[in-house]
Amino acid sequence: MKRPTWATVVGVLAIIFGILGVLAGVQEIAIPSMIEMQKEMMTSFSEGKTPDGKSVPEMSWEIKKDGEKQKIDMSQMFEGIEEQFEHPEWYKSWAAVLGLISLVVAALYLLSGILLLMAKQFSIRIFYVAIGVSVIWAIVQAIIYSQADSSMLMAAQIPSSISSVVIDIILLVVVFIGSKEAFSTEQAEI
User: Fold this and answer.
1) Which of 97, 103, 126 is nearest to 114 (CA)?
2) CB-CB contact of 13 with 170 (8 Å)
3) Which residue has the higher pLDDT, 15 or 44?
4) pLDDT digits (tens, 9 = 90+) for 82-119
5) For residues 38 and 43, what is the distance between their CA atoms, to the nearest angstrom?
6) Which residues contact 81 (CB under 8 A, 6 or more apart)?
7) Phi then psi for 10, rounded to 5 degrees?
8) Pick from 126, 125, 123, 130: which is nearest to 190 by CA?
9) Which DSSP state fits 56?
10) Closest by Cα among 80, 81, 75, 83 to 55
């Protein structure tokens, strides 16, 4: 029996989302070092120096407000940006763990997509497990990041967790209502 269209579509989407999840997990592992680097850069700019210690030309803007010229010192703006890179101390040490868990969840998601395309008997069960683990992990991440007291971290992570849950539920419904005939026996040709 031929693999159903829904299995092809869901399998390809699961592979794509799995790959994107792996990349997001790697990014999460690297975030603390990127934040430190950006923080150092903003600190040095606010002090009038480049990261390698050279002097930065004085940066300012002149604007007209209420008919009067006002000068905006860019070093103050850099200090404000620097505050946005503040993250809780626990995040720096736990980012690698969160990233590794995200990598494992994404790899399971990727594997489930590949198995759906292969139309193996156990593909549907693996997919249900992958979706369940993905939904649970997205909810756990949303809870963790909502407690972070960092507006930048919350704004970056919570929307992606919510969208992940919505996408997972849609894919779950498609698999749940789709015909499973092709998965009932091993197929020699697909």
Assistant:
1) 126
2) no
3) 15
4) 666 667 777 778 888 999 999 999 999 999 999 999 98
5) 9
6) 42
7) -65, -40
8) 123
9) P
10) 75
